[in-house]
Design brief:
single chain; alpha+beta; Rossmann fold; Tumour Suppressor Smad4; 2 domains; 10-stranded antiparallel β-sheet; 4-stranded parallel β-sheet; 16 strands; 27% helix
């Protein structure tokens, strides 16, 4: 079975030794390293003859391969980033070598994907607050070895963003057919993300085999912080929300330009987002 391994050498947990180890376990025919942003899209698009494409990267690299992989090629994701939501949500371990051992003997699972203004995503898209957090983290840059800051810096960045807004988010969005909202979280899976080992279930119940789920507070004020924490812990809150389940299409307009992210990748500011479910879109490799 012909296989290729795409590696982002700048991902937080990728080292030369780890690449050598996972390539040996997977018995791949070639190892391709990315050199700049969007390079994984280009590399994946050249691998139409492969039966399997493995990706050792963070979530940004996974997203690029989802957008470049030829139809019919099964994809396997090895956790090389600080968070690596996609492989973890698919049930793989955080250790890259152990994940490789499970993938090489794994089965395929057909999952749906989302699209935000045409860009595919594997697990999440965000309009407003969480996309702003991604942008703030990106602005912090990387350390001397090219690695991104960890969860502690992300928590500090989130706190700084809340303070900058005085924990006040007005309803600048209009979710077509469902009214106004302050910001929106769109999920293709549950969990939406992780903080360390803790899953962030926002919204709860989204499934890889289904359509898109949306969770959007109609407004957010300092008094709503306790309700937000309650939702994180229990899935229940009295904060007024727009909640959509298993949707094929969601259209959102904004009165002002707001940030948009997919799978942790900043796509810039937008005033309109069309989100679409691409059902049964791709085969991914998971543990047997």
């Amino acid at each position: 079975m012909a296989g290729a391994l795409i590696v982002n050498p700048r991902a937080s947990r990728v080292t030369d030794r780890a690449v050598e180890q996972v390539a040996r376990i997977l018995r791949v025919d070639e190892v391709l390293r990315t050199e700049q942003a969007r390079h994984a899209i280009e590399l994946a698009s050249t691998l139409a003859d492969a039966d399997r494409i493995y990706v050792f990267s963070g979530d940004g690299g996974f997203n690029e391969v989802l957008n470049g992989a030829p139809p019919g090629v099964a994809l396997g994701f090895l956790p090389g980033g600080g968070t690596s939501v996609l492989p973890r949500a698919l049930g793989l371990p955080r250790d890259p070598a152990e994940a490789a051992r499970q993938l090489v003997h794994g089965r395929t699972r057909r999952i749906s994907l989302g699209r935000a203004n045409g860009r595919r995503f594997g697990f999440s898209a965000g309009i407003g607050l969480d996309a702003e957090l991604i942008r703030r983290m990106d602005s912090r840059g990387r350390n001397e070895s090219g690695k991104r800051p960890g969860d502690a810096v992300f928590a500090l960045t989130a706190l700084q963003a809340l303070v900058a807004h005085r924990m006040r988010f007005d309803p600048v969005l209009e979710v077509e057919g469902h009214g106004s909202a302050a910001f929106a979280l769109v999920a293709n899976s549950d969990p939406y993300s992780y903080v360390g080992r803790v899953p962030l279930r926002l919204p709860r119940g989204a499934a890889f085999e289904g359509g898109l789920d949306l969770l959007a507070p109609r407004a957010f004020r300092p008094r709503d912080l306790a309700g937000a924490l309650r939702y994180l812990a229990t899935g229940r809150t009295r904060i007024p929300l727009v909640v959509l389940r298993d949707q094929d299409r969601i259209s959102i307009l904004s009165r002002i330009p707001v940030p948009l992210q997919v799978d942790g990748e900043d796509l810039g500011d937008v005033t309109e987002v069309v989100l679409e479910a691409e059902r049964a879109a791709v085969d991914v490799i998971v543990a047997r």
